[in-house]
């Protein structure tokens, strides 16, 4: 898939506004955030996207993304 | 000399065995479930878990920190050794709790969850309506649901009817250390349902665990009582012993409470007595 140079889209990651190049995949985003894919789970617009589907899932303008991990708790 | 030889050659009798704790599709060998929150360091948590004897630890699901990577909790919890039970702590409505459970399933590759739907951040009391709603959906999705709830026996019955794997009444509010405030409610619940009942929340010290286990509950889940003790490692060991002690006492069957004394030693044959 070709990436249009310069074109970017606005998304939200864990509530924070971010931008990324058109064509960015969910896998690209997880890598850009410096996260180990096996230690996170990702939701786009309220639905979980399975890890195996991250490379194929292209981000779209306005996507609301939640990236979570495990922390200490009872 | 002869007596000593006799005593040492006889082997100690084996402690009567207990059965493992079955929760849905999961088999546990300790009846103590321990949380991973609030420890001073990850190393302290790891050591406390080991000393507690648990084989099931709870974890929470939270947003990753976007401004820098942190060590992962999973680097300190050996998944070969512990079953990891994710919770939905911090969720105040069924929908958020369901989403959190789905994320946990994706993260861990397991389909069980400690369901918490809370009423408000000050009391952290479970919201019974939201809990029922979320439990219904998660059971339909194939989750083994361990439902944290208030100690109302009727609510426990409704959750059991929905098909949860375990009903987990709070002994008292989360982190309050008040112990089991209404043991009679737990006793009634135990009579009404066949699902494993696990006392979750409120434990302050070892005797709270022993007392809960003596009621006949299947297990106890705790976190703060160990993590915030002055010496968490020592308290973890105390909780391990209390859980085993309470369980064994329950299985052994306590004696009845009586108003008057009942001598352990024979009443006859005391020196100084004269016939006629």
> What percent strand of chain A?
35-45%
- Please count the helical segments of chain B: 9
Query: Low-confidence spans of chain B: pLDDT under 50, at least 5 residues?
Result: none
Shape verdict of chain B: globular
> What level of helicity do the residues of chain B show?
25-40%
Write down the overall geometry of chain A. Answer: globular
Return Rg of chain A in Å. 12 Å
Going across the major beta sheet of chain B, what is the strand order? 5-4-3-10-9
Number of helices of chain A: 1
Structure description:
The complex is a heterodimer of chains A (74) and B (276). Chain A has one helix at 26-32, and strands at 8-13, 16-21, 41-44, 47-49, 64-72. Chain A has 1 helix and 5 strands, in the order ββαβββ. By secondary structure, chain A is mainly beta. Chain A has a 5-stranded mixed sheet, with no helix packed on it. Chain B contains 9 helices and 10 strands. In chain B, α3 (94-108) packs across α4 and α5 runs parallel beside α6 (183-192). The longest helix of chain B has 21 residues, at 232-252. β5 of chain A pairs antiparallel with β4 (56-63) of chain B.
Question: What descriptors fit this protein?
Answer:
heterodimer, A: 74 residues, five-stranded mixed β-sheet, 5 strands, B: 276 residues, three-stranded parallel β-sheet, 9 helices, 10 strands, globular
